[in-house]
Amino acid sequence: MNYIASPSVRSYAGRLGVDLDAVAGVSGRKTLAKEDIDQYLSGGAGDGANVRPAASTRYWDVDHSEYGPVSDEPVSRMAKIAADNLASANAHIPQVTHHDRADIRKVEALRAGLKEEAVERGIKLTTLAFHVKTLAACLKANPKFNTSLSADLETLYQKSYIHIGVAVDTPAGLMVPVVRDADKKGLWQIAGDIADLAVRAQGRKIRPEEMGGASMSISNLGGIGGTAFTPIVNPPEVAILGITRTETVPVWENDAFVPVSMVPLDLSYDHRVINGADAARFLTHYCTLLKEPRRLLL
């Protein structure tokens, strides 16, 4: 049945165990909202409506104080929205994660060589700036990753711009401000944008229009730790790049093992749009660019 339902509506229906096809059939509506689901469950969706009972969530309804001391705090609005969207994305998108790692010796050497200039400019040139620049270049070379699938799955939208979302961990919850036109900016400007967005995100001063419309996002856990993870695709994007802590790995070069700084990469993608070969080629290209970062500056 043809109808449109937002990720949050699909998530809401999933939590209640409601079949959206049935809701659409009973209501006759082409665009479904949470109110349609509520009406369907209440039996007010039309004469003779076959109401399906909500799935049981009794196993969540526990008096934890029976087992020991507890305290409680309300979940923030931002956290509720994030939880709703992530649950819906994980439930409805067939996601696969491709893992690889990239040699970043020359990235670190280049950063070290630009340290004095960074001080003069008053900009901290982080490795993340190189990742944003590299991702922008890869999106330009692999346009399938710079698309969005329509809610009815009938149309694939190809974007002519390249905006990169950068996940920021804040006390209020996860925020993903966006570096606009990353393909048209140099490393210094990207580094400045990242620093500005991160500071304002921490202070909850990011404007709504600075958080939407990303071509693809980066979730960087390198400053915290870990060797790999599976980032969840943030719809309407079709892929997301995860980064964890750089590690020193023995690599066979010139008839001997040498210690090499390698950064683990985790590319999750929507398998309805991207296949495994696409993902492998994408990350291979990504690793090639990071290994020779001066190509990014040409």
Which key features would you list for this structure?
13 strands, Chloramphenicol Acetyltransferase, seven-stranded mixed sheet, 2 domains, 298 residues, 10 helices, alpha/beta
**Topology-level CATH name of the largest domain:** Chloramphenicol Acetyltransferase
Please give the count of helices: 10
Cα-based radius of gyration, to the nearest Å:
23 Å
- Based on the structure given, which CATH architecture of the largest domain is correct? 2-Layer Sandwich
CATH homologous superfamily (4th level) name of the largest domain: Chloramphenicol acetyltransferase-like domain
Instruction: Write down the overall mean pLDDT.
Output: 89
Number of strands: 13
Q: Helicity, in percent?
A: 25-40%
Low-confidence stretches: 45-57
Q: Indicate how many domains the architecture comprises.
A: 2
Order of helices and strands: EHHEHHEHHHEEEEEEHEEEEHH
Strand portion, in percent?
Answer: 15-25%
Q: Report the major sheet.
A: 7 strands, mixed
What is the assembly state of the chains in this entry?
single chain
How many angstroms does the end-to-end distance come to? 51 Å
The best one-word shape is globular
CATH class of the largest domain: Alpha Beta
* SS-derived structural category: alpha/beta
Would you mind describing this structure in some detail?
The chain has 298 residues and is α/β, with parallel strands linked by helices. The chain folds into 2 domains: 4-72, no CATH class; 94-297, Chloramphenicol acetyltransferase-like domain (Chloramphenicol Acetyltransferase, 2-Layer Sandwich). Helices cover 37% and strands 21% of the residues. It is built from 10 helices and 13 strands. It has helices at 7-16, 20-27, 34-42, 77-92, 105-113, 115-121, 127-141, 187-202, 276-291, 294-297, and strands at residues 4-5, 31-32, 95-103, 147-149, 156-158, 164-166, 168-170, 173-175, 178-179, 216-220, 239-243, 247-253, 256-270. The strands form 4 sheets. Strands 3, 6, 9, 10, 11, 12 and 13 form a 7-stranded mixed beta sheet that branches. β12 (247-253) and β13 (256-270) form a beta hairpin. The model is unreliable at 45-57 (pLDDT under 50).
